[in-house]
## 1
Amino acid sequence: VWTYSAAGAGAVNLTATGTGTDAGTGRPVSASGSAGLTISAASALVSALTVVPSTATTPSVGQSVEVRLTVTNTGGVAVNALTPLAQPQVNAGAGLVSFVSGPTPAGGTLNAGASATYAWTYNVTGAGTVSWTATAIGTDAGTGLARVAAGTKTVTTLSAASLAAYAAAYPSPRNIGQGFLVTLTVTNAGG
């Protein structure tokens, strides 16, 4: 019995020869055998977390956001039962969010060279900084070892827009046939 450790992926051909002397005849004897096998690179996960506002570049109170974990298997074998955790960890600074739904999809096998994106939906309920950490866990199809993909993303949420308008006409009083000026001042006390 020989034990080998692979230094890389690829095709391997092993040949072994045994020699000896026949006890009855005293003649030399030998036998050979060979076997081929392919060594695959283990799975390797790379991940990125993004937060996508549904209606604007920067999310505001009252809007929803989608938290997306994209996982790519850059290794040589599949990751079985790759499953995102039920809810990403939320670390809220001054910002607040409430969980709505997810993850979609629920998970599955991620083949070598493939990518999958898992999504959760949140409503923005308070302005400030919010940080998410999302994780997906599976097992290497070749070794059975656990594989973990995680990503973190921080966003700043804004207060909802709060518009106020003031209109004025000049001069006052006005006469028939006289021109006048109207001004409209709009302010946004929100985000």
## 2
Amino acid sequence: RRQTTVRVNGKRMVVMTTAAGKTTVKPALPEEWELQAAQMKRLHAMPEYGTRFLTAGDQNSAKRGRKASMQAKAAGLAPGEPDVRIWLEGGRVGLIENKVGKAALEPSQAVRHPLLAALGHPVEVVRAVTCEEAADKAEALVRGWLATSAVADNDNQPSTKITPLLDANARGASYGDSGAVCGSGAARHKM
């Protein structure tokens, strides 16, 4: 059996050919970055965003040339770091690692995630096959973390609310208006 991912009319499709020569075509699963983009868009739309939590995401798995890889490593990019960090009120951090379907953790993730958990920062692995599913699971995690955050005893209590620091552009433009389309394999940019 042979499987290839190709573009058909701008959409990623999987073409499978059996040993007997039968060919089938079906939509490809989203890429991991598309799951993350859908999560960010959903989380930034939550009314609690900016007052009870903030987000940060990165692309540790991004393809880089030799020079860019060296620069990223020198600047502190840590192999195996979770995809999404949720900065919660009360000095807590929620960590999310995204995986498409049954994809396994990378070896660097299998090392890094237990180290983070040992420091009190467990990593939640979100497995999804659609962007909607990934966004639903991320929102459920954040709502659960917020429900338990009744600002526990912590020396890192904020002295002021952060909402005034976030203007309308910072709240939505970075993710909500990116034009990324799940399953497209590429972002469309609005002009």
## 3
Amino acid sequence: GYGVAALNLMNTGLSGMGALYLVAMPILILVLMGKRAGIAAAAFSAMVAVVCAVLMDQGILIQNFRETPSWMLVLVTIMFLAVTMSILIQFYRFQERLIAQERHTQADLIQARELLEEQNATLEQKVQERTQELQASSHSLEQRNSELAIINKIQQALASKLDFQAMIDLFGNEIMRIFPPEQGNAQNYSA
């Protein structure tokens, strides 16, 4: 690219296509290679334009058929290059910020997802623990209700029959109903 620009600059000076090459090359390098390379290419293009203008003033390069002074052409080229590169660099920075924000957002999303999975596992464990506690409590309440039912029957028996033998028989029958004897070991203690 710079070789073609140099050939055009030697033939037509800064008023020909060479000046456009000097502007186009840094833009192309900025897009393809990044901000630092684009800035370096812009500085090189500006330096080539200045050298070309100096050579035209000394008569080494042939000035174009136009009567525009070479320093004016250099200033226009450098100004156009500076404006174009400034706009492109700002756009490049904007893209870099967008990419950085996207990466940050994705990192936050991954972290939130991991936290949610961790909390979900913790919640499931707490639900299982609470369910086991409730089942144990329910079993304990059922056992307590059975005990209270026995006491209530004994109390009713005492209140209705003040017969001691009847109370013992009733109490024994309730114990046998709740805790059935194992086969072969059943013994009857009634008189």
## 4
Amino acid sequence: VLKLLCDMCARTNKQKTSTPLTPAEVQLAPVSGHFVAKRWSAAGPTCTVMCNHQEPAMQLTPLIAFHMSSAIAATLTGAITLWARRHAGPLPWLHRIAGRGFVLLMLATAISALFIRDFKLPNWAGFTPVHLLIPVTLGGLALSFWHLAHRRIAQHRSVMRKLYFGSCVVAGLFTLLPGRLLGNLLWQRLA
């Protein structure tokens, strides 16, 4: 980035100096989400270049890729789990297999979310309001299995539906907002 800014500054410099701008002479200062390169001399800045490159809100790290993959897989597996019980002829074997997969994927999603921090949004030690879904998800899974162990199938069904729609569907829609990693990717492609 510094090399690019130095080249841009050399091209736009109106003072016709013979010495090119070096990275040591550049000061990067955030200005409304942009970066400004300034060449400083004894008389002050001699060149200012605006760069339209904005730093993304969050980078796609292996942890975020794992979290995102397990969340998308949980959303698809959860739909299969719910469909297997709503089908005209219930498929209990498919419901059980898909349900176990859904639970494992939701556990992976919730646990991996513990290690994802974002200090740019309003946060508390890197935890943003979306991190409140972690205890909701873990508590919902525990409550669902408690109901299942006590043969309270209607309560189990209710908790799992709420968990699916709250933690997968609604949270998934919130990730598509501008400023989030997936939201930025989506809206940049549509623009």
